[in-house]
Design goal:
With about 140 residues, the protein is α+β, with helices and mostly antiparallel strands. The protein contains three helices and seven strands. The longest helix is centred in the middle third of the chain and has 15 residues.
């Protein structure tokens, strides 16, 4: 199991996240088109070991974008709030042995998008940018 799987497991295990999206946490930037809203798409934008004078260490840092997608902005904000509560500033050992060392959120943004055909029904996305330091097992 990887750090991606560890973070996905932690989000799915959180009661607040599960109450809003069930098990719809998708890894990667492609979500199946048949996926009903709401859901969270989790993308790793950078990951690697922290280097020291002695070379690589077991300490790593990964950067993430977590797209909280829903039919309304209110719902997307609620999902983002639950995701933040589940993961930020916590020291957690995942089932696979990865030890998260206190995630931080350098920035976030709220975006509302409408379908390209101009339909009145759109969707809302709240994108969280999260940095997660961790120790590999």
């Amino acid at each position: 199991m990887s750090i991606k799987a560890a973070v996905r497991s932690l989000l799915l295990a959180d009661a607040g996240v599960a109450a809003l999206i069930g098990t719809k946490v998708h890894l990667g930037d492609r979500v199946p088109t048949a996926t009903p809203m709401p859901y969270v798409a989790v993308v790793v934008t950078g990951d690697g070991p922290v280097l020291s004078l002695g070379g690589p260490t077991k300490y790593c840092l990964s950067d993430w974008m977590m797209h909280c997608v829903a039919k309304t902005n209110t719902e997307a904000v609620a999902i983002a709030t639950a995701v933040r509560a589940a993961i930020l500033h916590k020291k957690i050992t995942a089932a696979n042995g990865y030890r998260l060392q206190g995630a931080t959120e350098p920035e976030s943004s709220d975006e509302t998008e409408q379908p390209a055909d101009g339909a009145s029904v759109g969707f809302a996305i709240v994108t969280l940018r999260i940095s997660i330091p961790y120790l590999v097992p």
